[in-house]
Amino acid sequence: MKRWLLPLLVVVVVALSACGNTANNNSAAETNNSASEANASADNGGSANASSSTNSSANESSADTITYQSENGPIEVPANPQRVVMLSGHAGSLLKLGVPIAGTDSWAKANPNFKDQLQDVPEVSVENIESILNVKPDLIIASTDIQNADKLKQIAPLVTYTYNKVDYLTQVLEIGKAVNKEAEAAAWVADFKERAREAGEEIKAKIGADSTISIIEGDSKALYTFGDAWGRGTEIVYQAMGLKMPDKVKEMTAEAGYYDLSLEVLPEYMGDYVIYSKDSNADASFQETSTYKNIPAVKNNRVFEVEATGFYFNDALSLDYQLDFITQSLLGSN
What we know:
The structure is a single chain. With about 325 residues, the protein is α/β, with parallel strands linked by helices. The chain has two domains: about 60-180, Nitrogenase molybdenum iron protein domain (Rossmann fold, 3-Layer(aba) Sandwich), CATH 3.40.50; about 185-330, Rossmann fold (3-Layer(aba) Sandwich), CATH 3.40.50.1980. Helices cover about 45% and strands about 15% of the residues. It has 14 helices and eleven strands. The strands form three sheets. Strands 9-8-7-10-11 form a five-stranded mixed β-sheet, sandwiched between helices. It has a four-stranded parallel β-sheet with strand order 4-3-5-6, sandwiched between helices. The chain has a two-stranded antiparallel sheet with strand order 1-2. Helix 7 runs antiparallel to helix 8 and helix 8 packs parallel to helix 14 (about 315-330). The longest helix has about 40 residues, at about 5-45. It is globular. Residues about 1-60 have low confidence and may be disordered.
């Protein structure tokens, strides 16, 4: 190679090296800038660059809704619902979580545990779709067998639940998730479990761990007894407190969750202590019969009557009331 070519080659190599370094530096700078922007976005709760209207709009949309994983699949629901229509017996759970109710059914309106809190809330029903339209809901919560579900979905996002598909406390948690109040619901559940457990221990120490408890209810048609997951305080007595159910009640309620009673067989289903959820329209004439009066729990004044409308459901507020009633009744018994 001729000597005059050597200086030229050196110049070319140096030039190419400089260009490569510049490109790498620019690429690294762009990568670092992108990472810095991503980190800044994460530090600001995922907010986008304020100067970008597209990103700002996307984040605003994301903040307005959340995806709730319902039993029927994912549903977009408001992140901060302000006008909920509750049609599944859990108005008390929404009230406990501080979620505004725009409308609810007649059952909730009649519940003495929170009747005053719902005094100004309109009564709505699926039979009258216009009543729901009029309250302009941003979320509707109902049971899976609700009528006119397709029409309800056109009004607002519809979340439905199957009764007893999950246990009673998980149901409160699911309501909490649907209204973006999961942490608050979880805190209440943990506190409720502990209160019920402590009360159960006190009760067992008072009446004996082997004493049995029956829960019965009378309405205008019949008399019933219940298993361990049918509202009326059953979940509290048998699950949370761990108190005993009479063997006959356990046997006959195993399939349906409840069992119709006749006066003739009533003594077989009455435990050492009885909680009687009494409907105001119930035929209570059986209480005047000798069959009833000779039941040991009756003779020993261990039957505790309570208004049925406040005992039907297992929403958070009703559960609080039931826990207090059961605890005070059994601890105050002879």
